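Example A, followed by Example B.
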Amino acid sequence: NITSDSYVPYIKNIKNEYRASDIARFRIGVRPEFPSKAYTTSSFYQTNERLPASSSYSIYDSVTDDVIIQDEITYGASKTKISSDASGNYFDLRMDSFMPERYYKIQLKCVRTKDTQTFDDFYFKVVR
């Protein structure tokens, strides 16, 4: 998990547009907001930090700001929990559940023992 108090998640493979028939896997990377200086021969951005295990996502219509998929916790389990594997964090979306020719916003919610942070600068469009 990310150890820094101030961090920035980003979506590694987000596209501007997805077809309505696609099933997209969004890979999430995370890095410290203010990394400490280090003189190394490899890139700092190749580190594989992870979001906290209790992180989840929501999807909003970017024009009306209506909630399309809400991060919902039911009986201690989240339906929109961000998964993790050997390559890092990810979540999958079926694009046929969205209206085509609209823009959508992804909001990540990261819950740690000290605080809860939300990040929502990720946009995509569904096309026919």
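Example B, a separate protein, is given below in the same form.
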Amino acid sequence: MRNLVKWMAALSCLAVASPALATNGMRMIGFGPVQNAMGGASVAAPLDAATALSNPAGLTALDRRADLSGTFFDPKVKYSATGGASGQSMSSDRGASYLPTAGFTWSGLVEGLSLGAGIAGVSGMGVDYGADLYGSSTMTSFSNLRIAPAASYKLRDGLSVGVAVNLMWAQMKYAVAGATGMLPRDVQDSFGYGATVGVQYTPVDLVTLGLAYETKSQFQDFSWTIPSHTIQTPGGPATVPGGREKLAFDQPQMVTFGAAVRPLPILLVAADVEWINWSATNGTNEPTFSTNPNLTGAQAWNMSWSDQWVFKLGAQVAATKDLKIRAGYNYGKSPLDPGRAFENIAFPAIAEHHVTLGLGYDFGSLSVNVAGMYVPEAKLSGGNASQGLPSYTTRMSQVAFDLGVAYRM
């Protein structure tokens, strides 16, 4: 167990060092190759130890196992605009991210009780434009790592409840509109906490239902010391004072309901419906400066995101005794407000359609799982004259590949 803790701590550092530009808003569609291959549908279909992150009640359906995987995540982001720096059109230099996911389950200590834990980068976003709309760089980055110790208890045959304690570590950095107080090396940390509670119920042998509620994640304020400096604005140079700046940036509550059906012994079909309460954390005038607002000279944050409904569908076919083929689809309408021109260029979380495929092969107690995700280009257009951007279009496409191993004890 001590070695496992050290192993997971090392993965924690790697996850935070590799921020992603996420897909359902700023949240990943799933965790690891099995969930991702199923389009993220997992609340009623516990297939690997990452269920500790999505619905801890599913732990009682799993044998003792450990899962380890890595994701290569490569978003392509660009924008075009009129106004600002004479209608620039640029592609982000952000590049790909490498994200680990790990988990384990343990049962047998107490009858009906299963323990587990999961670790993953659950959300992130950002861009890196060398010269932005106001004649200087735009660099944004947010990443959120979660470690979730979990427990599940089988109340009776077919009915389990579970809870996970979500321990989180987030990092943020940004430099926009010529704000010299925010340098790329000026990375700020924040620790947060929350919880996920879940229920899983199998009323008949062929059908399983799942329900998971994730609380709002409360984070410490991000904090920077900003020196007095001159910035370039649409109206010309301006001097802004220095001081301590704090930004409150929590993560939203969410509810997911799922169902899994086995119409044939070799076929599993799973579907989830998820509600994400973005408006409470990224809505009107959110996130907010809690002290000395706007010392960087950047515009006040007003992401104006709306709540998001996400639909996930996945299928697994046991082609042979050892080979499993998986496919999935995930859709979530972008929560962004087209009127927030600069925010949507700096944080373009506009991906909507996700198509996934994957395979799993068992070598005795060891399994190898792979998955791929393709997100066709999505675009969002609008304008905001008060920001000096009468019109803009931001675009994004994504590809991702997962490779993982699982060991059943």
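On Example B: The first helix runs from residue 2 to 17.
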